[in-house]
Design a protein that fits this description.
Blueprint (H helix, E strand, L loop, with lengths): L2 H63 L7 E8 L6 E8 L3 E10 L2 H17 L7 E10 L2 H9 L3 E6 L2 E4 L14
Parallel strand pairs: 3-4, 4-5
Antiparallel strand pairs: 1-2, 2-3, 5-6
């Protein structure tokens, strides 16, 4: 080997090292952009969930009255810090002896239904004020596939879906909601 060839090889190594450094910098920038985008998408999903809540709150009086449940108050975002039953309910529709705990999502997925059923099982422990009430559950979403509607209905939940400029119950007239006791 002559010395010119060794120098060329070293130059290639240095150039390669510089390119790798630049690639690393670009990858770091891309990662930061993806994290910002992920945060923005998460915020958008939360905002859409809030939109669903805002649609459900005033409609709750009408929706549940059609199922024989007289609602007289609706509360957004109630929380409990009772040990072993910490939870948040997006919307609580309250009647004299009945309450409906509503989970609101932009898009309802299976895990949302499973989690809400789990919350309902602990609801009376979390909110002892409602210990003597009949507790029903509902799930509301901008997007609820037919499969997710069937799953929620099979679990005994009311299903609230978009309908024109408001919302409606997807449950048929023969639907019998499940009531939750403390488990």
């Amino acid at each position: 080997m002559n010395s010119a060839t060794v120098e060329e090889i070293w130059a290639l190594f240095r150039e390669n090292a510089q390119q790798m450094k630049e690639t690393g910098r670009q990858m770091k920038e891309t990662d930061q952009r993806l994290k910002r985008l992920e945060t923005q998408l998460g915020q958008l999903g939360n905002r859409l969930g809030e939109f669903v809540e805002e649609m459900v709150k005033p409609a709750s009086f009408r929706l549940f009255q059609t199922k024989g449940i007289q609602i007289y108050a609706v509360y957004p975002n109630i929380s409990s810090k009772v040990p072993g039953a910490t939870m948040e309910i997006d919307v609580l529709a309250e009647g004299h002896q009945e309450v409906v705990a509503i989970e609101a999502k932009s898009k309802v997925e299976e895990e949302d239904i499973v989690r809400h059923v789990y919350r309902l099982q602990r609801f009376k422990k979390a909110f002892p004020r409602y210990a003597d009430c009949i507790v029903y559950g509902a799930i509301a979403g901008m997007v609820i596939s037919d499969d997710m509607q069937r799953l929620a209905i099979d679990r005994g939940l009311f299903v609230i879906v978009p309908s024109g400029d408001s919302v409606a119950l997807a449950n048929d007239s023969g639907f019998r909601p499940r009531s939750w006791q403390q488990e």
